[in-house]
Amino acid sequence: MRHAMPVGLIGPREATPEQLQAARNLGYALAGTGMTILCGGKGGVMEAAAFGAKRAGGIVIGLLPEDDANEANPFLTVALPTGLGITRNALIARASLCLIAIGGGLGTLSEMALGLQWNKPVFTLLGAPLVRGAEVFDDVDTLVASVANWLVTARQTQTAKE
Amino acid sequence: MRHAMPVGLIGPREATPEQLQAARNLGYALAGTGMTILCGGKGGVMEAAAFGAKRAGGIVIGLLPEDDANEANPFLTVALPTGLGITRNALIARASLCLIAIGGGLGTLSEMALGLQWNKPVFTLLGAPLVRGAEVFDDVDTLVASVANWLVTARQTQTAKE
Amino acid sequence: MRHAMPVGLIGPREATPEQLQAARNLGYALAGTGMTILCGGKGGVMEAAAFGAKRAGGIVIGLLPEDDANEANPFLTVALPTGLGITRNALIARASLCLIAIGGGLGTLSEMALGLQWNKPVFTLLGAPLVRGAEVFDDVDTLVASVANWLVTARQTQTAKE
Amino acid sequence: MRHAMPVGLIGPREATPEQLQAARNLGYALAGTGMTILCGGKGGVMEAAAFGAKRAGGIVIGLLPEDDANEANPFLTVALPTGLGITRNALIARASLCLIAIGGGLGTLSEMALGLQWNKPVFTLLGAPLVRGAEVFDDVDTLVASVANWLVTARQTQTAKE
């Protein structure tokens, strides 16, 4: 936990204005607390979160499905083209401390299921798929506070072990 | 479609007697119609299906999460250790013509979500996760008939294109 | 070792007549001794080996870089499209008991390097890249005998441990 | 090319003092010119390069083979545990604009071979494996100048196309 693993931000390319607004606010708030964000690097929720994080001076990494970064969103700090297609979803879930889903369909569902299988906390907002074990939130502020609380507790547990 | 892509058989290691019986029958029936089976290579539903397919002289391939085949089930025709951990779920969904789920939890859910994202038909039995787009069946025979029908139609469509 | 892990057969799509002839003979000989073959599923050396193995009634599995099996060679027993692009090279090295290279360039070199890193024996023929740790052979018969010898010894070591 | 793809820095965990010194200087120089660095996240050359980049205020991302970041080097800006084992080598090569190798054995060789297959420039220093297509350098400064030159040219070509 000492090392800078990112928070995973997942959600659809096709998003509602409300989801996009939440993603911008969420990216801004996460970056403001010093968290690094990992996402799929594409448009919609991913782009909005990267935009928000960039405004707060944060770091956003995009794991792209393609072989190159030509279709990455322009707000990523670092674009990592994996050439893995949608299989890169598994890497997003694997490499994140926890996952935050805003809306989303089958892609988001696959990431949530993999994250929960790896015992990662999954926080959701605004119509993300319902999966047993994921925690549903109504607004960005409560969700960010909950993620921050979890991170602090996890860090303390880690430190106590060392 | 001319080439021998397999049918994906997914389901949990911890299964009920009813699910195991269905998996054995399903493996036997699929192998009997000449279909090759791809699965995760472990115990439970995967082992029961491999057992059934072996009795019918069929081919079953296991994509294992581990680095070696020491923990593969003993009924696989070919064991392929991927060293990818649970990320190998994505490969099972990617490499299969269609997916058949018997029961299952988060792992099965992730495979179904990925398969549906790749437009693969998903057939389910006996308590598999409910996902929009997956077809729910009550018994093995009806499911096998439906899979066989789909394959015949898919092959004809493919042949007509060529 | 009890479980049916395959022998990996690697080599280029663009091959000389001599390499293709060796691949056909090698596929036939390996299949004749009951070994399952794993390859990249494409043309050239991979197709020639699959052709030879098929004539001997053997099983050949192709891990394809593409999302579907449309460009697989027609002699595969099972075609597994991975959607991973060239990254599937790592899976071929990871999932094989040992690797046999016929000719080859950068792709074959990457598979040899990964296989050797995982302590897999690597046998080469007819102009495969020279890598320290890989064993160079002059003809198919001596190579097949050497692979068979290694497999027998490896099985005995495994059995003695159990 | 507009988007921030990283430069890949590859090399062994067991390194000579000369290689470690070069890696520190290289990390510092690359970060000083504003380049983001992608590496394997472990010790030796990877840790030295991350240390140097951190001193220059740069960003270093580590794609770890493990499931968590417990064994990451402490100088990474972001640690991404992939759970892929050595197969993550392919991702390092795939996601980088170009590769720079300092020393190295089979792991570095596999990354160089994959990078060259994907037409990525490969620059090497201090005993990296010799592979046709990779450019060999004698000192850090000349190498950094050459990488910077290549990046500028690549960006101009990209811009001209747009």
Description:
- 4 copies of one chain form a homotetramer.
- Chain A is an alpha/beta fold.
- Helix content of chain A is 43%, strand content 17%.
- Chain A has a single domain (7-161), classed as Rossmann fold, CATH 3.40.50.
- In chain A, helix 1 (17-32) runs parallel beside helix 2 (45-55) and helix 3 packs across helix 4 (106-117).
- The A-D interface holds A 1-6, 36, 38, 59, 61, 67-70, 72, 74, 76-84, 91, 94-95, 118 and D 1-6, 36, 38, 59, 61, 67-70, 72, 74, 76-84, 91, 94-95, 118.
Keywords:
homotetramer, 43% helix, 162 residues, Rossmann fold, LOG_family_nucleotidases (chains A, B, C, D), LDcluster4 (chains A, B, C, D), 5 helices, TIGR00725 family protein (chains A, B, C, D), alpha/beta
Summarize the structure.
Chain A is an alpha/beta fold. Chain A is built from 5 helices and 7 strands.
The largest pleated sheet of chain A is described as: 7 strands, parallel
| Tally of alpha and pi helices of chain A | 5
Molecular shape of chain A: globular
Architecture of chain A, according to CATH? 3-Layer(aba) Sandwich
Which structural class do the helices and strands of chain A define?
Answer: alpha/beta
Mean pLDDT of chain A: 94
DSSP helix fraction of chain A? 40-55%
